[in-house]
Known about the structure:
6 copies of one chain form a homohexamer. By secondary structure, chain A is an alpha/beta fold. Chain A has a domain at 3-236: 3-Layer(aba) Sandwich (UDP-N-acetylmuramoyl-L-alanine:D-glutamate ligase), CATH 3.40.1190.20. Helices cover 34% and strands 24% of the residues of chain A. In chain A, the strands form 3 sheets. The first copy, chain A, has an 8-stranded mixed β-sheet with strand order 4-1-9-10-11-12-13-14, with helices on both faces. In chain A, helix 1 packs across helix 9 (278-292), helix 9 (278-292) packs antiparallel against helix 10 (297-311) and helix 10 crosses helix 11. Chain A is globular and about 50 Å long. Chains in contact: A-B, A-C, A-E, A-F, B-C, B-D, B-E, C-D, C-F, D-E, D-F, E-F. The interface between A and F is medium-sized, with 28 and 28 residues.
Amino acid sequence: MQKIITFGEILGRFSPPNNLRFSQATSFEVIYGGGEFNVAASLSNYGLDVEFVTALPQNAIAECAMRTIKSFGVGYKHILRQGKRLGLYFLENGASGRNSTVVYDRDDSSISQVQPGDINWDEVLDGATWFHWSGITPALSPNAAEVCLEGVRAAAAKGLTISTDLNYRKKLWKYGKEPKDVMPELLSYSNVILGDVDTALFMLGKDKLDPDYTTDVEAKEVFDKVFELLPNLKTLAMTYRNSVNASHQIIGGLLYNEGKMYRARLNEVTPVVDRVGTGDAFMGGLIYGLCEYADNLKKAVAFATGACVIKHTIFGDVNRASKQEVLNFIESDGSAKVDR
Amino acid sequence: MQKIITFGEILGRFSPPNNLRFSQATSFEVIYGGGEFNVAASLSNYGLDVEFVTALPQNAIAECAMRTIKSFGVGYKHILRQGKRLGLYFLENGASGRNSTVVYDRDDSSISQVQPGDINWDEVLDGATWFHWSGITPALSPNAAEVCLEGVRAAAAKGLTISTDLNYRKKLWKYGKEPKDVMPELLSYSNVILGDVDTALFMLGKDKLDPDYTTDVEAKEVFDKVFELLPNLKTLAMTYRNSVNASHQIIGGLLYNEGKMYRARLNEVTPVVDRVGTGDAFMGGLIYGLCEYADNLKKAVAFATGACVIKHTIFGDVNRASKQEVLNFIESDGSAKVDR
Amino acid sequence: MQKIITFGEILGRFSPPNNLRFSQATSFEVIYGGGEFNVAASLSNYGLDVEFVTALPQNAIAECAMRTIKSFGVGYKHILRQGKRLGLYFLENGASGRNSTVVYDRDDSSISQVQPGDINWDEVLDGATWFHWSGITPALSPNAAEVCLEGVRAAAAKGLTISTDLNYRKKLWKYGKEPKDVMPELLSYSNVILGDVDTALFMLGKDKLDPDYTTDVEAKEVFDKVFELLPNLKTLAMTYRNSVNASHQIIGGLLYNEGKMYRARLNEVTPVVDRVGTGDAFMGGLIYGLCEYADNLKKAVAFATGACVIKHTIFGDVNRASKQEVLNFIESDGSAKVDR
Amino acid sequence: MQKIITFGEILGRFSPPNNLRFSQATSFEVIYGGGEFNVAASLSNYGLDVEFVTALPQNAIAECAMRTIKSFGVGYKHILRQGKRLGLYFLENGASGRNSTVVYDRDDSSISQVQPGDINWDEVLDGATWFHWSGITPALSPNAAEVCLEGVRAAAAKGLTISTDLNYRKKLWKYGKEPKDVMPELLSYSNVILGDVDTALFMLGKDKLDPDYTTDVEAKEVFDKVFELLPNLKTLAMTYRNSVNASHQIIGGLLYNEGKMYRARLNEVTPVVDRVGTGDAFMGGLIYGLCEYADNLKKAVAFATGACVIKHTIFGDVNRASKQEVLNFIESDGSAKVDR
Amino acid sequence: MQKIITFGEILGRFSPPNNLRFSQATSFEVIYGGGEFNVAASLSNYGLDVEFVTALPQNAIAECAMRTIKSFGVGYKHILRQGKRLGLYFLENGASGRNSTVVYDRDDSSISQVQPGDINWDEVLDGATWFHWSGITPALSPNAAEVCLEGVRAAAAKGLTISTDLNYRKKLWKYGKEPKDVMPELLSYSNVILGDVDTALFMLGKDKLDPDYTTDVEAKEVFDKVFELLPNLKTLAMTYRNSVNASHQIIGGLLYNEGKMYRARLNEVTPVVDRVGTGDAFMGGLIYGLCEYADNLKKAVAFATGACVIKHTIFGDVNRASKQEVLNFIESDGSAKVDR
Amino acid sequence: MQKIITFGEILGRFSPPNNLRFSQATSFEVIYGGGEFNVAASLSNYGLDVEFVTALPQNAIAECAMRTIKSFGVGYKHILRQGKRLGLYFLENGASGRNSTVVYDRDDSSISQVQPGDINWDEVLDGATWFHWSGITPALSPNAAEVCLEGVRAAAAKGLTISTDLNYRKKLWKYGKEPKDVMPELLSYSNVILGDVDTALFMLGKDKLDPDYTTDVEAKEVFDKVFELLPNLKTLAMTYRNSVNASHQIIGGLLYNEGKMYRARLNEVTPVVDRVGTGDAFMGGLIYGLCEYADNLKKAVAFATGACVIKHTIFGDVNRASKQEVLNFIESDGSAKVDR
């Protein structure tokens, strides 16, 4: 039985209702989410045993985030209640030719102020089989990066599978270091990575390739570049995303493992209900797929891609789709008729 | 002057606002509708004299349904006020690749508990020219099926035109009988039927044909199968629906009468505002078309199809479009410019 | 440094929320806007110095309109506070094949009752470089037409650039005169006109041409017809709009100046968030473009078109896009990725 | 069997939600109401046969008002569909020490532009037993006053009971006449009047008395002054209202008939949900009480007062209380326990 | 360490927003609650270990109720997932002199259809110290009454403390039995009862006393009547409620134990935010008080009363107040100053 | 002509709608306010010339605060656009016996990170006649305290009137200093102070007096203690507030100047719409009163008290009442009748 630990941040997300711009809003919809939590919630929805590890302050707003964590059945017993504030971000939803915008207000959040040693990794990882982190955490602060490294090392020492979503966010990474100063050591432990090749190379301090994924041969060639740099890497996956405009996306998925390339079908998504968290939905589907369909990797990447497609239709950061709904989608033609 | 009776159920419909899933909703939009009532409301909007016959309990929520009926100018003087509850259903609206879902909670609704003899059909049908029912009512309970048969027989005896929307709902039909046990006798009286050929054959206990409608010759061939089985049938119509995804539909219409096939143009509908009740809008447009454009059946099916297309853009079960708006649409190119 | 005066009306706009029809609404969203004010707000958003001239009554609802004017940083010191009511209009938003509808309730609004001499044009235009008006104002009442002519003459006498949006609204023009009785003299002073050629010819009392804009040669030929009739005209621009349906528009732009035709790329807009004010957004972008990119008219028309495209995604009458956002859009491929 | 005609205006009422001020609102709640219509709706709720007579324009917003009229089961067959606009008013709801404010925008509404002769009073009053009008109508325009007089005379000629709510509104009466120029003749036909004595004297061109109602003797003395001036008056009623603040009212009622004074108990109302239409609720209850409890005038005034009290708890202009609810209230101690 | 089992029903509650009447609502607020669940949620909020036992169907709406249960940290592992529907009720919130109204739609809910033997009481009660049920459950159906009796007997056999809220609901009890046919045996096992004396006597088939609680002597006298009839009763408590009107309540509490009477102070509550669930809040506070302040019963009844008072200010069925908030309230003067 | 500078912070305020608790909210109402800005907005509403001085970051959310500042007509040209975040706070609105709660999230806001020298006080104060600050600013950070002192000294040097609202907030003051370390020097320059005597003594490092204000003699005695400690003080004012519960307040005001005590009448406020900013409303009314009614200090304190009372009925931080509305209130009996 799998037991999965995800480590990272959960934030308050404030967004104007409907398609209003920030300057028009007189109220904000509020939900609580964050890359690594969203993955945990997906996995719990699919029926896996999952714990989310983070730090949250002791106040009434952080309690709302706790309530969200509990409502998804995600384990929370290792969450530190310390530090001074819950990280926040503001989201203006785009439409058609107007892009969505994120304004971060997560400086000095509890997780970014966590101290090395605060988390008892031995206890946290006890009995676990899988450890997941993303490139957002080391972008927050030197402390967060160091604590992340503690976790990764402890997980590797205990023989857990380690997965990583590269999640490069330009507006973070403000504390004086660049990804290439921090990520190579962290990524060296990863067994599963989600992200496109150029982002991986950039984080590893290498040059961009502008790869072409048209044929499997082309795709393998560039994927192999990443494998050469990361000794423990077994599986590299990426979302294929053609952004026609903010409301219209074409979504597919690729998975590369032991020299074989697996692809999921392309799916038209229009209109997009909520773009945020769709990558996390892919990641959640990927971990689930690798655990449950280890002998059918085509199904694993199809599951991850289907999860990602459905998430585009769901408000909030989290993919509120059950395992059965994802399976129904990937086995259907996508016509989505009324079920009555 | 036409006077139309529709017989069936009106329910409370509860749906999460916007595109929320059930699990996210903290409020439900509430409207009152149901297949046969929706047809009545359409006809009243077009200016016809129409009575809705059903049973509703004596309580404050049923009063809300009554108020909806009155607000459309539909006649209500034959509605029985008896039984214990208003039927309900819950609707989760889909988007793109996520389908809409209906959860029925209509067991023991007043109409399903109606007793043979409760409705004085002689009085109800007095002065009427047209009787409409749908395949939903006999699916509810043995009582409802029997009372429906009472009505159909009385209408036939008085020489009314009888129309039927097949409306097959898999999640109903739970009381131990199958459509083929009940529908053949009921349908034997119908003069006008709305529904696709395979549903008709299934309800009549025959095998599926997987018909092809590409050419009129192919279409006629399969339509004729239905006519062979139903001695009183004069007009068979169907909605042509290509469901690209839950938010994107392509809609046309066919009508077959005295060996001639009439088609309406195909219309792209995206985005869909509300999918529910679009078949009822077609049915309402069809009855109106057959009454008013009896000598121009191409216009009749165009009117029905136009009504169906416009309904996709209107929130709620009922097609809140006037006769003039439907005519404007079918005479336009669909560019829908601002009227100012 | 440019200083721009726009003259016209600001109204209260009441619209059912979401996609509700009038008959379903239990509340109306309320915003304040109007063609010439929307242009002023756009220009203020881009950083120009702009004054809006109108008449508003002394009551609490008109104060709300004043507050909107102030909130955009538009100058308001020449606004007359007189007359008896704020003009209103009701907007039902369409979707797919259902068109939007406007119900005007602007009779006897303060601006329509303004008397010749009420506005001290000498003071208003002092220090100004540009005067903008639209074809809506002379459609309101004989008084409004006469005061508009006062303004145009005063602006011409002071050597200001004069721009006009033709803005033909069939539902206005009810006071007994037709555009051809009033517009020729008014337009004779215009240096910049926004509008299609057939509307221009109609307002000048000439016959329709049904022009074809496929090639520049064809387009120039018809544009030249308008220049022949208007001695002071230097620049004629038009929005190219292909209305697929109410939710799906394809938008481009043309600008003709000193015998040269400049075109902006075509842009797909779907879904449309708010169609109203998109022409005003083009006009605002055009004035800005002509002021700032006078030596690069291709950029000027691209800016105007980009502003128009973005406005389709913004709720309300006003284009709440900054100069930088418009520039980002016209330099991008329109994929509108999340900015985070 | 009573058949009641009420004559007057129905308007669109726009109010900020919750307790927002005009300057804060981004949406307005919209309902349709007006003094004489509110009375009609009350009477229909109590089960009487009632027709509302007014003039409404032919447009989509007026259709919303029509739909409201129909939804209360009030007769509408004599409503003229002519003229140019629906009257509107804006309501800012007060609270505690901040008063509610009304901004009228009803100039040139259809009813104010009605012409003498437009209404066929013979047809309207055929079969009727009661005619109701209020002091708002003659305040609107000379035309409205004249048409009201036509109606009053026709009703008197046919022997109907005539009732009047004085309803003095300072912000109306702007067309050059004062109440004393118009009201004396109109009121001379009234058999039942609702209003306080000083308002009656003011409308009849007499001096104020600042009456004291503490004892029945004092009250009778001042009531008699009004009877001296109005030959046909039989019943004079008034609401006793102590306005502690905008959210806290103490409400009672008095009725004077054939020299006898009848009083209803005082009721504390806090908080007030909606103050508007509470006088109309009293009027509706009064007419009902005089019709149904003619031999028990203490019950009649208790019914009117109870209706007024309950209306304070109901959003909108109309008293959505049934006859049974009013009776329950006047027979209870007002503790208003949950009914479950 | 206490472990508490509560047994009963959780329902969907639909209520018009703000103070709207049913007939005005276009949406319903939806929350999930029910007497015995509300008690469980209170206890979980105070930090106790609590399991809720009920039956819920397998559908998407019941999942929403499950999500609510989980979100309060209440145990749910013994909930049966069977039967056909979630019980519903509709709540119209009153104000001032208008009472709140409940319309039940809970026939055939899963708990009412539960069969004797369906619940494995041995497993459910294993390790538990306290069993709570209320008079609502035996009112639902013969089955529910019988299963409740199974639970009570099993709890008594295992030596658990048994508490009961009498909760008499006139609109339930429709299956042919009266409380006196069912309740005496059930109540004979109760150690703690919440309810007024006349309700207790009525349920036990005895005559009403109209007791007076002014002095402790008077109160004891009537309380003793109940103790005479119930051999296992140790503690009898009641809420003292003076309902000034629907928005204004005066709340106190009494507790009688081993011949001693304990009283909590009276508290003015105005305005009432939500009246429903205030009795359950008292019950939850009472169980907590009896467990934690067993040696200070004055504090126990003060805690129960304080919880009840605070619940009046909280939307929904459940008392979302922490233990600390209740303690702060009972130790304060009730002035409720801003905490900042 | 007065020109007033207020210096301090504007924050984003997020509050659950209606009376929801934090744990229930799925959206937050958002407004922008802060003690010193609220004063500026009040003064601008009354017609005075006022500039608000603060620091705000360069991001889209801070733009919303800017837009609020502009919409009140408050001057903003000296606002620094620097630093990293907009200060935020979360407000849970209480009711009856449940208190409101504030959760601050304003650490590292731009104003708290401002550096000495950042503000060019010479330029800011040029032409000004009055400088206002409050005890919140020095509570934020050592920097903010130092910059505040710079401003106070510069204002004193230029001979401006200096006013201060003591505004003690226990949850602030976290940077290692106590009020008595910082406030004595700052307050030594103040000419006008708003606050109660015990807060003043506490901030000046003196012992509490628990003063009694029943008679003027008693009140003067304790007020004199404060004057002894502050050489430049001319006017000391305080709000008299009796908090019955969170929804019910009794409000009066005192003003002490040159040995004379002036009192405003007591006012009952129930229900309270919004408690936050009522002290700022008093302060704004006080400055206005001292400027405009310098020779009638009874009117000055009545104006301040009336402004405070009205603010309790207005949503948001800012007192959206005009000068005329405040005057109407203080001249009325508070019955707050509908103005129509």
